[in-house]
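Bumping with the actual sequence this time:
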Amino acid sequence: MADITQQYVDWFRHSSPYIKSHRGKTFVVMLPGDCLDTPYLTNIVSDLVLLDSLGVRLVVVHGARKHIEEELQAAGIQSEFHRGMRITPKEHMSHVLKAIGTARFALEASFSSGLPNSPMYRSKVRIRGGNFITAKPQGIIDGTDFQHAGVVRNIDKEGIGQVIGQNNIALLSPLGYSLTGEVFNLSFADVAVETAIQLNADKLIAYNDDGPICDKDGNVFREMTLLKSEKFLVESQRHNLSNTYFSLRACHRACDAGVSRAHIISSSEDGALLKELFTRDGSGTMVYRDSYETIRRARIEDVVGILGLIEPLEDAGILVKRSRERLETEINYFTVMEKDNLLIGCAGLYPMQTENVGELACVAIHPEYQKDGRAAKLLTHIERQAAKLNLSKLYALTTQTAHWFIEQGFTETHVDMLPVERRSLYNYQRKSKVFVKEITP
């Protein structure tokens, strides 16, 4: 008995640094609908309530795929899918809403339990929801009209922030509402990822049926960088396909857009969440972008930092001046390099509308970090983006950095070789040199 007690004391002491570091942080939790009708739900909810009591700001996004399928089958309706997405005609929406409501109410009931001799005893958990998700139609893809299957258009991050800021747990269902008053059936993973991104969440936690990521030989990956997880997904045909990879795709998307850490854990392993967050070895797989120095897609809040990088180069005549307003409208073209929350580099990739090529623009590195090949790392990232967009060439214009582009594999070409739409904007007074580089798939 004494040994067990001492083990408990040791574990509690070892977990205290994690308790301190997680307090006040925002976690978005993906809870698939398959979890809601299993015996494991009670323990999952208990662990989430424990996080809430330790000061973690929680947003729980639940799925309902299983419930929707059962409800439609009971009504004699066979769903159609395209690219793994359910086509949702208007006449099916009443069944979809009923199924999602059933799943949500069951989950709310689980958060409300509090029997003696249970982890939930005397817990007073407040669950709050609302019309936080604005959606739009998925539209027509490959000739298929998805009808009332939608995509996330906007997240009311202020509204959700108020909920979790008042010590409530925000509960989001896979539904979105349009400006025309329509309701759309959404992917719960998309809702969770977009919410994590918009809230600038500290973690995305994805429950699944399979636990940590492992390859076909059973080798477990406890940690995966963005690059490694991307490679793993691309090579998915070499691995066993399962819900694990669905979760990995969501975690990769979240981290690629700025979420620092994402965790994949098993819904069937008792205490998987606590093991993952409060022990050194964890129990699942953590996907992460290096918080010390990382490259990611730019966000609207990065505009001020980008201006700080490029304005000295604009004043020196190295870069063409860009207004704040222009940067805000073009922010989706930019990639940034970040170190300890400081932007130390940026670059833009502008795909051409009429030709299968792109332009590299606005490459800038903070003066204190213009060593160790950071600009080349940024270029490599841009080239990977270009390859994903199936661009065949990358153009660049420069007045003072010609040698750097040559060192990176660019070759000089004539202005007349620029795509027509870019040639029409060429500033003959600056006399910029034009360079081009072939992009290999």
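The tokens above came from a reply further down the thread. The longest strand covers residues 342-351.
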